[in-house]
Amino acid sequence: MNEQDQLLSRIQSAARDALDKSRPYFTRFLTEAEQMRISVLKFPADLVTGFYGGEGNKDAVRNCFGIVPAFYVNDESDFPALFPVKAITFTFRKCDELTHREILGTLMGLGIERDTIGDICITEGKAAVFVTEKLAEFIMDSVSKIGKVGVSCSYGVDFQLPEKQYEELSYSVASLRLDNLVRNMANCSRGTACDRYLKPQLVQLNGEVCDNPSKLIKEGDIITIRGKGKFLLSEIGDTGRKGNTHIKVKKYK
Questions:
Q1: Which domains can be identified in the chain, with CATH numbers?
Q2: What is the rounded average pLDDT of the residues 229-252?
Q3: Exposure pattern of 29-43 as b/e (b: 16+ CB <10 Å)?
Q4: H-run or E-run covering 66
Q5: What is the pTM of this model?
Q6: Which of 2, 68, 169, 240 could form a disulfide with 249 if both were Cys (CB 3.0 to 4.6 A apart)?
């Protein structure tokens, strides 16, 4: 059984336990590919399920998944509050700069596993990091400097998280095959899309490597092309006179 199948097996087993033993279950932070796999699973009506990336982080990329017996949840606000996720804000001088890589490197340098760390959101003089609850106190006690930058730590998010920025793009494609979309997104010929990006496995679909040029893409799918960026297929529109399909794409900035 591969890792993906093991994950789905654990989720299904946890759902049975949640029903039989009235026991909530929460994963660690999941990749986009793992979230996509879980999102197609079906659960009984007396279970509440969903993803959560942390306080105020509505556009989270890395999320935990929760399975909770329905009687735990009286209204929508109850469900997120059950997740064992904490936010920590690092505050530093506005004249200093920190990168996602520097913050992640500092945390993993403490022996922290990647799947216990969620999104890292950075703005001027502040950075919010979402982590599993068990690690929060350890991080608070252990981190006073990231790289050469001194930081102070506090629980929660005390600033407006930056919204995800996109560039809106429109294309007319002959079909919704992956090679057609890569061709447009990478601004190259269809042959080049296959030879330069697909065959060398430089394309990911929803977080997993995909080298199948005929794979059909649907709304909501995320395509990442190494060296070209990350794209969300946001809308599939009408078919034009020549039979091409009009699509809208959001390119992550």
A1: 3-81 (3.30.1370), 85-155 (3.30.70.330), 166-252 (3.10.290.10)
A2: 93
A3: bbbbbbbbbbeeeee
A4: strand 64-69
A5: 0.84
A6: 169
